[in-house]
Amino acid sequence: MLLRVENIHKSYGDAEILKGVSFDMEPGQSKVIMGPSGTGKSTLLRCINHLTEPDQGHVFVDGEELTSKNLNAMRQKVAFVFQDFNLFTHLRTVDNVAIGPRKLRGFDKKAALDLAYQELDRVGLSDRADAYPAELSGGQQQRASIARALAMEPKLILFDEPTSALDPELTGEVVSVMNKLASEGMTMLVVSHEIGFARQAADEIIFMEGGKIIEQGPPSQIFEAPQQDRTRAFLNVIEHGGHE
Amino acid sequence: MSEWFDFAIEHLPYVLQGIPTTLGLWASAMVIGAALGLVLAWARIYGSRPIYLAATVYVEIFRGTPMLVQMLFIYLGLPEIGIVFDPLTAAIIAIGLNTAAYQAEYFRGAVRSVPVGQMAAARALGMGQFQGFKNIILPQALRRVIPQWSNEAILELKYTSIAYAIGVTEITARAEKIGYETFQFFEVFLLIAAIYVVMTSVVAQILLFVEKRVSVPGL
């Protein structure tokens, strides 16, 4: 088992955002977390690599528990792709990708750049390597940030609504990169309402509501025969192109 | 006007001999101020409560008292408790400690202006807080702070003149000496003002060049 999430709780003041969430992931699996907004999906994702500290619960990666002591080492195994990209503004695209290997994985400058060009090629951005983030389109920025994650050669990538800051015509290029990664066997946990990715690449859909998992299963089951009324109602809304 | 030029040419060499002192005093103080200012800014942003408070008290004290008083205190006051500096060292320390307080606030503002997502992305890659600060936040903050820092640098270049009060023979002290020897105060202070304008303009142009040189789209 690659990832084990055990009984995660998180509150902000009186608001209990996560009420005990548990699930596992095997290597090579892709899972998509769906559910109405405000239901704790992004908080859950951030709790998994402790960008947000959970109040309770445990996260194990490769059998090793994430603690405050091994945090930085563990985060190198669990990459994170942000909704709003967060590329490093002062660095060219290729340096955004190279900085992880250079500063954290002990690569020398040349090796780090070689790897960075390789990862940019993987997301189809070789020709934009010398551009600064502000010179890239949103879709290009998100693909660059995926390349930055890949350059850490992580065991798992967490995607936090990777297409929701993008114009509709730009989501396709990001989704196709994600589909490709999934087919190459990358382990991916994705918070997204991107039906295309969920249907094509996900092994399992996790449906959350009110800080809990209320239904989970393969896409065929969730999309064709959801067990819960709430899941059915929600899917109805997003399948018809609306926003919940 | 031509009389003034003759006067200027005659006394220029003596005044110019003070320029290494003026610029040396200024550069040393700016370096001390930048180093200490960065530490203070770090303390005020990331420090625990006591460290934050200590840095805040420092900034308030050094911003809240005149630099001349600070300089006199260091040069004339500290010897009473056995700490003695020569005039130039006392002036460097005074101006350095003073500008540190201002620079700290400029650095702090610049660091705060870097979007929080930048540090989040650094931490998510596996960088520690200091690594993220050094590799990601600082390079952006320093670019953003250049205009304010340039202002401070020019201000301090002019402030080096108050070192004359504790006997540092920088250019203002030399001008005053010429004034008392020739009684041509009008001419000599016009001369010294022109020299300050030349120096500050050159510094401003250099810093503007640096600002353009390191600028990055989107920052």
TrEMBL record, chain A:
Give membrane topology per the record: Peripheral membrane protein
Domain ABC transporter: residue ranges = 3-235
GO MF term list:
ABC-type amino acid transporter activity; ATP binding; ATP hydrolysis activity
Annotated keywords: Amino-acid transport, ATP-binding, Cell membrane, Membrane, Nucleotide-binding, Transport
Subcellular location per the Swiss-Prot or TrEMBL entry? Cell membrane
What are the record's GO terms for cellular component? plasma membrane
Kindly give the InterPro entries that the UniProt entry links to this protein: AAA+_ATPase (IPR003593), ABC_ATPase_HisP-typ (IPR030679), ABC_transporter-like_ATP-bd (IPR003439), ABC_transporter-like_CS (IPR017871), MetN_ABC_transporter-like (IPR050086), P-loop_NTPase (IPR027417)
Name the domain of life: Bacteria
Principal place of residence: membrane
| The keyword Nucleotide-binding appears for this protein | yes
* Homology family: Belongs to the ABC transporter superfamily.
PANTHER family xrefs: AMINO ACID IMPORT ATP-BINDING PROTEIN, GLUTAMATE_ASPARTATE IMPORT ATP-BINDING PROTEIN GLTL
The protein's name: Glutamine ABC transporter ATP-binding protein
Biological source species:
Thalassospira lohafexi
- Gene symbol here is glnQ
UniProtKB/TrEMBL annotation, chain B:
Q: Which family does it belong to?
A: Belongs to the binding-protein-dependent transport system permease family. HisMQ subfamily.
Molecular function, one GO term: transmembrane transporter activity
The protein, known as:
Amino acid ABC transporter permease
Q: Where is the ABC transmembrane type-1 domain?
A: 19-207
Q: Which SUPFAM superfamilies match?
A: MetI-like
* Sequence intervals crossing the membrane: 23-43, 50-75, 81-102, 188-210
Q: Name one Pfam family in it.
A: BPD_transp_1
